[in-house]
Amino acid sequence: MLPLTIWFRDWIRPAWPAAVLALAALVGPVPAQAEDGYALWLRYAEAGAGRGPEAPRVSQLTTPDATPTQRATRDELLRGLRGLQGRAPTLAGRIDRTGALLVGTPQSLPAIARLALDLGDLGQAGYLIRSTRVDGHPATVVAANTDVGALYGAFAFLGLLQTGQPIANLDLREAPRIERRVLNHWDDLDRHVERGYAGQSIWDWHRLPGWRDPRYTDYARANASIGINGTVLNNVNANADVLTPMYLEKVAALADIFRPWGIRVYLSARFSAPIEIGGLQTADPLDPAVQRWWQAKAEEIYAAIPDFGGFLVKANSEGQPGPQDYGRSHADGANLLADALAPYGGIVMWRAFVYSHDEPDDRHKQAYTEFVPHDGAFRDNVIVQVKNGAIDFQPREPFHPLFGAMPKTPLMMEFQITKEYLGFSTHLAYLGPLYEEVLRADTQVRGEGATVARVIDGSLDRDVPGRSALTGIAGVANIGTDRNWSGSHFDQANWYAYGRLAWSPERSSRDIAEEWTRMTFGNDPAVVAPIVGMMMGSREAVVDYTGALGLHHLMGRGHHYGPGPWVEGGPRADWTSVYYHRATRSGIGFDRSRRGSDAVSQYAPPVADVFDDPDRVPESLLLWFHHVPWDRPMASGRPLWDELVHHYDRGVATVRSMRETWAGLDGRIDAERHAQVAAFLAIQAQEAQWWRDASIAYFQSISGRPLPDGIAPPTHPLADYQSLEFPHAPGDTR
Amino acid sequence: MLPLTIWFRDWIRPAWPAAVLALAALVGPVPAQAEDGYALWLRYAEAGAGRGPEAPRVSQLTTPDATPTQRATRDELLRGLRGLQGRAPTLAGRIDRTGALLVGTPQSLPAIARLALDLGDLGQAGYLIRSTRVDGHPATVVAANTDVGALYGAFAFLGLLQTGQPIANLDLREAPRIERRVLNHWDDLDRHVERGYAGQSIWDWHRLPGWRDPRYTDYARANASIGINGTVLNNVNANADVLTPMYLEKVAALADIFRPWGIRVYLSARFSAPIEIGGLQTADPLDPAVQRWWQAKAEEIYAAIPDFGGFLVKANSEGQPGPQDYGRSHADGANLLADALAPYGGIVMWRAFVYSHDEPDDRHKQAYTEFVPHDGAFRDNVIVQVKNGAIDFQPREPFHPLFGAMPKTPLMMEFQITKEYLGFSTHLAYLGPLYEEVLRADTQVRGEGATVARVIDGSLDRDVPGRSALTGIAGVANIGTDRNWSGSHFDQANWYAYGRLAWSPERSSRDIAEEWTRMTFGNDPAVVAPIVGMMMGSREAVVDYTGALGLHHLMGRGHHYGPGPWVEGGPRADWTSVYYHRATRSGIGFDRSRRGSDAVSQYAPPVADVFDDPDRVPESLLLWFHHVPWDRPMASGRPLWDELVHHYDRGVATVRSMRETWAGLDGRIDAERHAQVAAFLAIQAQEAQWWRDASIAYFQSISGRPLPDGIAPPTHPLADYQSLEFPHAPGDTR
Question: ipTM for the complex?
Fold first, then answer.
């Protein structure tokens, strides 16, 4: 709602009469763009706070335009600089004044070649940004080895302006630590999104390829701006139809749109596709006809999409077909597809989130048990995709024991960006701290410092003979047709944080939160600090009000909406809540210690020793690993029951505090976004209370313990909470 | 993309320096609003063509703001006039200059009371617009008996400006001919839209009532602007959950948003709700417990929504429950609900689109057969809702024989706005001529001039003793979450035309097309004429390429996408194509004459005589009513087979011509909308060819007749067309 007068101030300085300013004010309201969230963090809508008229500006832009990526880079720079500076720089072949910006590669731009920059360590995606002199004039150069590297550098330069940082005396070098930075869309072909809370799938399959929605380009821009370079278009619970010619033509249209932005498409492949769309009687990976079918399919795909990324596969998990249907191993299955894709440079991302029809004693252990024996048995173009924890994207989980346990096999992280277990899209929960917690967790498999980040970026096991150099990271997208893409304005931050951490897994989630806030809500310090504060405490609030101290998997059945600690029965025990919390009159928690399921022994000994010991395990994971009495004394001095109640109350209080903080920003944030966030925080407050009340009512019915003094009892009787049903909640599996 | 400079021209006249104009140009592009279709026909984005600087302008606005409707009216006028004139008028308590606009009722605005206008015939929704003098100054007055009437008048006044009409010397009086002007949303509670091709349901049930999307208000504005005053929120294939307290709270939130705009909410009621959510063992309408349940439910609804409109019911049709399950009649069922709603002023809209599990000899006859015996048996607050034709919203159908056949019972028209059978949202097909054709059809039940319009507006049977005065019209909405609401820009015209005809069923669809075009694409004559031309020929093109001469129900099974004249088998014959076209080696068409199914006898004798005679029936309905030989000579002199092929070719040619026309508008229409329409026309051209080729290939395989000279054979063999499957096509029934 703001830029018009600001632009005018830029323009009329110093000579325009005050009447013109008045005129500009009268014309309003003409928003330069609606603040509906569509622009994401690429609003380019205001100069950074503190950037006075004396701040350096880009006066000239020199960048090539011979390739689609070069043109995309140039257009993005023009768009961004026009927005941020009030006018676009001139496009210049030669530099004749202060403030030129040169963007390109030594091959694409002779002026960059002449600078003889050291680009050796930047690889295929890195860039440098340096203040220098060109043709005698102070200038800034953004240089890379590839067009896509230069595109990333252009976004980084714009990011400096967006976040109000100085652009004089720059000397930055950036290269990604992980090669494949991928989104996983759990999008069905009818546009339903499994675990999607932001509308429908943005892939309008029916109208593709004829209609190429401009939104696809904006999707690619947004992803490129944070370094994401791959996208799996369809649900891991895959439909084989996506591999038919009709759909491949549609996929190719999307690939064409994404290619200039350095993004490759991948597809989730249904393992039984040779039967369903190929007319074969079997999908046995050792059957030559099956192998030929996949080879021919790969040839067909690459004829349409020369840079196709490869397949993501969920096999023998939750009812999906897989190699075990034929008595073959996960390695047999993965290698079947890998061999078909290898001639074209494609890869297979084979998910380790498996559990069989036979219920194990502890589902926590199953992926490790099934996969570790195959370490070293996968082809070089296979990467095993492992969820951050062993259960399923809970608000807090210990890191997955597979990290560090398969040194001969590249492992790919799978984070969930969509908030299946953290309040859908209405709860404000910034996931940066969750991602950071996992990435920084120390597996200790090779002594201290063997962080999960170093497992997935390959640096930990680079010396293992014959190990593939593939690296990757995946985020399950929270993107849909909602105007603001993610269902809520703050959920955009989770997409953003995922991308930034995929590029630099060592980055601080707080720094990322601040960067995102500045790009999204502006550089006013009175806005930035409170928002970052809200974000940084928000995930812990969800942990508190949904179940702290290591409790997990307590949500409603199926749709996962709201509290369901009482969920029991049904097709299998490990789809219930009581399986996980195991609360009785005497105590609560899942005993995964050496005296229990012994899941702790899947971790390296120093970690296992800590997790195994109820006195050493972090309190935040106590009930994940131990079944303990309700009156066990906690660090606070409170007994466990009182501590648990305290956490529920604290979660509710944190949400209340977020609401107050946000209310205090009224007038400092555009009314449109302020109103939606305020409405969502009100929903969150109501639902946090619901979680707290329902959980306390339930656990009290088990423990029989009184509430601590001064603690409010649940608003309603337990039976009321248990009676609630939500058959039409969004995002359910189908 | 245009208004900034236009606004400046308005403002700087006459004294600003040229430099300011240059400045304004330099600032761009800052679109005042993206031309993405979201604004619908309420863009308010440009002055009408030909409205020079000397054109009268609204200088002052005098309108009350004591009620929500009055405030909505005032805000809409300010928004519209600001956009159309470059600046908003001043809000004035007293008139002190030329060009004031007064809007209100004698009760709300003393200045209007003082004018002592004759508002007697305007009813509760009508208005007048008159040029007059107020306090000695030339002024315009918009007056009505109610706030909502004044709101409608305000939109009408803005419409004059939008369409470039003079606003001097006005003397207009308008009142709707039909009382209930309703949209039917076939929206499920999980946001799937049955027969929806514009994304998901705009009702975000999960986030209601906490999140009141501003889009709901824009929906209400758009509907109010065309006089729609009711909306049925959920699918006629209803889920009883919408009647539970959790959903009624959400419904009430929407009702609160819509109320200021004169729009009441209705719900589709599942007849078996007393069982499903009431815990009863029966839904028998004569069971006292069932009656009490509905009475209590009505009381509960009206406590939350005092102006709740009532229920729409699809009963004993296509598997839905209904009174016949208990051996009761449609009248018994409708009266059950009507009695529950009557104390609160609610009504029942009882659908006549019924067909039983037992297949009749001709489905065409069933609604008439079932309903006519109950004429006079319905309560006064029941209206029977009848589709425009007896089959199902085909591109062309004769009017439904029920119109005129139930003089003691109010009948409500049901049109389909969403294009289930006319190319989904990618085919340009303006439905105004279809609606007009039906409304102007003469039932001849009381001599000539007994048009369908006069049946539904109640004027034909006003003298029937004891007849209820209820009148209504329903349109099955084409609205979804797509940014442009209707899936395509041109499908907005069908929403618009429906609303305008609901208000004035005698209006010309061409006039409406021109009005819509001016509001949507501007008043440039070089734009208006070609677009209106495209629109007016577009529905006939669909008839031609999908099956002319009275052919019907030839589409793909289930999803209804694309051609399927070969569809046969399956659960029942009247869900196939071969049931309807009955093509054999010797001839084609459904014999509904007196020698056939005798459906013709459901029409009044003069109509029946025409339809019964293959030489008198309009050629466009020949195969609807008659089975005739392939070589029957047609009016053109061609044999029937050649004539049919000619129509297929003509349909394809018309689409080609529309593409050429549209291409010629490049540069005269904003690039964003031009590109989407062009892409959709390309899809339509491809699919028209597909329909033509597949249909000719199929019918040729039956008739064994050669193609006429010079006619291109189908591109592919018939088997190729028959092999196509579209399991994920949008909008299917679930």
Answer: 0.94
